[in-house]
Structure to design on (379 residues):
């Protein structure tokens, strides 16, 4: 039920994206400038896009997969995006575009590695705070997709609501609702665990 | 619960959210430089490619249409020709001309598998009457025999007329011939 609601919110409340590839002005989003530069062969331009969007991609992956897998997947996703950059129609929508790539890649990776069991990360994480963090993250992963993604971006990556909306292409209202409902559900789940 | 702090970190901090931020912050993304391989280049899409594809499709469709129309117009008159050439030769004329006028049946008058698939084609299926080929002397004899037959038929006709007149008796003046007497 919550899953359906959250997915519908995510799909329907996405802010309309205006095509802004042409006519560069002072108000031109930084993404448009950087994508244009990248397409013209400026590798530093794409490096700046990576710096801007890597935390978001990391958060999206972390809300779906294990931490050890995520660190290797982030650069892979950007390399893939770099080769496919010409298929991006609206350069201002780089964020939603790479977010969708990250979601698809996480889904593929999860499907392929379903049968494998990762033990290395668990053995390595002897730090108690990291163990606690992993436990809470596991609880967040149990929430509906839209809530868990927004919560991870807010609580793990430290992004604010308006930043999440700007990066992912969701409307601020949608992000706010997802944060509020997600936090409510997380609190309920944490009520069953010991004190942090 | 302070929603403003959860939303944009403004207002009075929510202790639970702060605690969660602190714990989960250990999993935060650690910036690493992206190593783009030297041979990596973003592919530039050709803007004219879709237009070229549309133009090529239209040209192919046009060509196919022209070829189809041409094939159709070429195949239809041949069927009519096949019907026309099946006319019987006229009996008058030189023997050489007669031979030329012998019925010519075009190959396409024979229905092929392709023709059978067509629903309606204006082709008449006639039985074939081919005249026997005659030599010059045979033809001359035939003409003579025909003349004799005509003479014989005329003679027979005259004799029949005479016999009829005798049977009716001599014609009286004022009597209209071939009229039956009334009363």
């Amino acid at each position: 039920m919550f899953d359906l609601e959250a997915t519908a919110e995510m799909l329907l409340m996405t802010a309309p994206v205006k095509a802004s590839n042409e006519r560069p002005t002072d108000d031109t989003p930084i993404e448009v400038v950087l994508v244009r530069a990248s397409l013209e062969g400026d590798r530093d331009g794409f490096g700046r896009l990576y710096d801007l969007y890597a935390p978001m991609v990391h958060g999206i992956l972390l809300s779906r997969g294990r931490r050890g897998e995520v660190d290797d997947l982030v650069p892979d996703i950007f390399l893939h995006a770099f080769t496919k950059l010409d298929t991006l129609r609206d350069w201002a929508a780089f964020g939603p575009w790479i977010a969708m790539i990250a979601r698809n890649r996480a889904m593929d990776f999860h499907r392929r590695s379903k049968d494998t069991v990762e033990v290395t990360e668990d053995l390595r994480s002897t730090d108690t705070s990291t163990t606690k963090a992993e436990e809470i993250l596991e609880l967040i992963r149990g929430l509906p997709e839209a809530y868990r993604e927004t919560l991870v971006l807010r609580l793990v990556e430290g992004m604010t609501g308006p930043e999440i909306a700007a990066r992912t292409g969701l409307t601020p209202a949608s992000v706010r609702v997802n944060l509020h409902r997600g936090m409510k559900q997380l609190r309920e789940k944490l009520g069953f665990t010991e004190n942090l | 619960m302070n929603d403003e702090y959860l939303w944009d970190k403004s207002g009075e901090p929510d202790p639970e959210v702060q605690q969660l931020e602190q714990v989960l912050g250990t999993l935060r993304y650690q910036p690493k430089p992206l190593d783009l391989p030297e041979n990596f280049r973003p592919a530039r899409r050709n803007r004219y490619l879709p237009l070229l594809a549309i133009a090529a499709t239209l040209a192919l469709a046009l060509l196919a249409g022209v070829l189809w129309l041409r094939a159709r117009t070429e195949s239809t008159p041949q069927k009519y020709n096949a019907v026309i050439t099946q006319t019987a030769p006229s009996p008058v004329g030189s023997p050489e001309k007669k031979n030329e006028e012998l019925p010519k049946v075009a190959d396409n008058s024979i229905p092929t598998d392709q023709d059978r698939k067509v629903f309606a084609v204006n082709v008449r299926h006639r039985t074939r009457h081919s005249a026997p080929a005659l030599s010059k002397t045979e033809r001359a004899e035939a003409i003579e025999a025909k003349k004799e037959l005509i003479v014989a038929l005329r003679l027979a006709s005259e004799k029949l007329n005479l016999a009829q007149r005798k049977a009716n008796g001599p014609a009286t003046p004022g009597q209209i011939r071939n009229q039956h007497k009334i009363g």
